[in-house]
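On clarity, I found the account of how folds are encoded harder to follow than it need be. Since the whole study asks how a given chain folds, the encoding of that fold should be made plain. For the editor and my fellow referees, an illustration may be useful. An entry of this sort, consisting of the sequence and the corresponding C-alpha cells, reads as follows:

:::
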Amino acid sequence: MEAPLRSIHVVAGVITDVRGRILLTQRGKDSDLAGLWEFPGGKREPGESSQAALARELEEELGIEVEIGERLIEVPQQYPSKRLRLEVFRVARWKGSPRGREGQAMTWVEPERLSRYSMPSADVPVVGVLRQPGLYLVTPAPGDDLAGWLVALEAALDAGVGRVQLRAPGLGAGPWRELAQAALVRCRAAGAELLLNRDIDLARELGVGVHLGSEQLAGLAARPLPPGQAVGASCHTLAELQAAQALGCDFAVLGPVRATATHPGTEPIGWEGFAELRQHVGLPIYAIGGLGPDDVEAARLQGAQGVAAIRALWESVAA
C-alpha cells in the first residue's frame, strides 16, 4: 500500500509595480521544479494565518514590507511527491526594493507576457485569473426572435461578461454564419471574446475562438487555432482534462457542479469532485452547472477560473 502524499499549504503574492508589471521569481537549482518561474511566497507554518505567512515570506525572500489585499484563488494541485494547496493574494501595497535575498533570480513581467514563462502547474491557473474573464456566457439558441436575442446579448456584455461561447444547436449553416457575424460585431464593440461552439472552420475564417466538445478532443492531433484565437473545451473526466491540456487549450469547462435542468439525468460532481479533478492538471478551468455570478468566489476557492453558465448569465439580463 502506497504511503499517502504529504500535504503542503503554500501562499503566494501577486506584486505589481507602478508600470503594471508583475514580479516572478525563479525556483533554485536545488529545489523541486528547478528553473521554473512562480509567484513569490512560501509555506504557511502551523498556527499562522495565510496573510501573516505571506507577509513573512515576502520579507524573508525579497526584503519588502507588504500589505496583503484580496485573495485571488486557491489551487489544489497534486505533484508526484506531494499534494499542494496554493493560496494566492494580491499585494495591495509594498515598501522597499525587492531583491533575491536567497539568491533566486527575479523578473518583472508585463501581464500579457506571463503565459510565455514556464511555471509549475499550480501557478498556471493564477495567470488565468489575472488574464482571462471570470464569467463565461454560453448562449441559448435564438429561436424566432433574433432581434430580442441580440438585445439580450448586448445586455449580458454590458453587465460584465467578458467571454462568450456562441451555441445554437439545430441552426442551419446560413443562419449560423449570420448569427456568428452579428454576435462578433457586438462582442468586439464590448471588448469581449467570442468563441464558436465546435465550428473550427468558421472560427478560423472569422478570426475568433472555438469551444471544442469533449468528443472532438480525441480526434485532434494539434491545437486547431493559432495563438490569439482562444481554444476552450468541455470536459467531464480527468482523461478529457488531460487531453485538453495536451492539445494546448487555453482553458476548459468542467462540471456539472450542481444539478441542472439542461442535463437532468447527469449526476453532479459537487465542489469536492471538481477540486479532485482540478488538482491533476495545470489549466485554467471554469466551473459549470447550476452556477452564476455569485458563485465566482466559491469557485475560485476550489481552483476555478470562474463560472460558465447559460441561464444565470442570460436570464438575469434578459428578464
Notes: Residues 173-190 form the longest helix (18 residues). Residues 222 and 246 are 9 Å apart (CA to CA). The chain has two domains: 6-112, 135-318. The mean pLDDT is 94.
